[in-house]
Amino acid sequence: MTSHWQTQLERLAAGQPTLLTEIRRGVEKESLRITPEGTLAQTPHPPGLGSALTHGSITTDYSEALLEFITPVSSGIGETLETLADIHSFVYRQLGKERLWALSMPCIVSGDAGIPVARYGSSNVAQMKTIYRLGLGHRYGRMMQAIAGIHYNFSPPEAFWEAAWQDDGAPGSRQDYITERYLGLIRNFHRWSWLLIYLFGASPAVCASFLRGRQGHGLELMDPEGNTLYRPHGTSLRMGGLGYNSDAQRGLQVCYNDLDSYLKTLKDAIFTAHPAYAQFPSGAGGDYQQLNDSLLQIENEFYSTIRPKRVAASGETALTALRRGGIEYIEVRCLDVNPFAPLGLDGETIRFLDAFLLHCLVEDSPPCSPEEQAVLDENLAMVVNRGREPGLTLANGSDRRPLDELAGERLAGVARTAALLDTAHGDGGYRAAVAAQAAKVDDPAKTPSARMLAEMVEDGLPFYRFGLRYSERWARHFRERALDETALAALETESERSLGAQRALEAADSQDFSSYLKAYYDQYAAL
């Protein structure tokens, strides 16, 4: 049955094609810095890259060695990819002999002590960022801070929201309408995100050094030397028990049925003490090994495959920004770095994501219950660990159905949205992207996870050798790639500007850190 919003999209797109050509997107791509031997770099953030605290395009995430590249918001896929390529080319001019690791799961690591925590300077905001990361290390181990991924930010243009709101009779405020529609997208995303894990998962194996001393992981040895552990039909181990998951958070029932419930649940978790974390200092005697001893230090500690977002003002919490203005865009967080693409993703992936997310937006999205969420979590775990297993079935309502059947039905809906996008753009790129994913359902050997394992077996490569092969390939690619003089000058200028901005922040601090932190948490209390 065609949903009301699917019909609305078709009607609006027919009259105003630019509603679908002006989709706004941005990419945040993480990459570990490694040595030529494939071990984690122990060097500080390269000074030529400016300040990781204030640079607009190049920062670090959890570890000092985990670079993060950020593209500006753009409505052009080619522009987004070109900007990301320019950032890579610029970074390689500053890396010396180091390279960027081409996989999500890390290179050779030597335990928690060998994973340096990111540092941002002496300002209050910088201290908070580092202490937060120290807290993550104490709570979950630093190994998790060496895992990389790709985040995809997505929002239809303002003109789309205005047209849709008016078409629906202008109910309530336009921002409340937008927020409710985004929440519907998020609920559907949770229902169907297993499909993205199957199609784009690229972490079916890990280096044995990542799991040294860890029991109960359930992985199999892939090579006689014991260098690689894997799941034969796995897709994205990063999104399972080896990645950003927490036993403490499993009881956290985050509801996406309305914004108030979402904000309240995360606020309560930020103010609810978790006894297991009381052992780590959180300010007594000036010793901060974490920001607090609550279930969550801040909202970002809640790990999810997708987040509702709004651009926050300086010093504003993410939850306060959402309360102030509602949802502005969504951030997809379940994409592995694709080793077969120089940038870790490509235009085909972006086109599919656009069509998939629009499909999630325009399909009916009933409220989600804790019981349904438990089933969705089970489906996701099944695809993470066994996604390419012949005959695999997933829960579907009150029964179970084969993954390939469910995938085919979902892809048919995505293809309908892709056709509208192609009509608006005047080409066939979106339908071609959906067809390429359908081919992976027909033949699991075409998935990135299967291609990785096949190449490792055929060429006798342990995980780290496979990773080095592609890391070296893309290092040569970006070192040889010509960087436009205008782009080079802009990145050099931004690096210099960011260093000055960091110094200015440090000079402007007028309160001690404990007072700064209290003022920050007062925002949560006021929600």
TrEMBL record:
Residues 16-383 form the Glutamate--cysteine ligase domain. Keywords: ATP-binding, Glutathione biosynthesis, Ligase, Nucleotide-binding. One of its GO terms (molecular function) is ATP binding. Belongs to the glutamate--cysteine ligase type 1 family. Type 1 subfamily. It catalyses: L-cysteine + L-glutamate + ATP = gamma-L-glutamyl-L-cysteine + ADP + phosphate + H(+). The keyword rRNA-binding does not apply. This is Glutamate--cysteine ligase. GO terms for cellular component: cytosol. Pathway: Sulfur metabolism; glutathione biosynthesis; glutathione from L-cysteine and L-glutamate: step 1/2. The keyword Iron does not apply. GO terms for biological process: glutathione biosynthetic process. PANTHER family: GLUTAMATE--CYSTEINE LIGASE. It is an enzyme of class 6 (ligase).
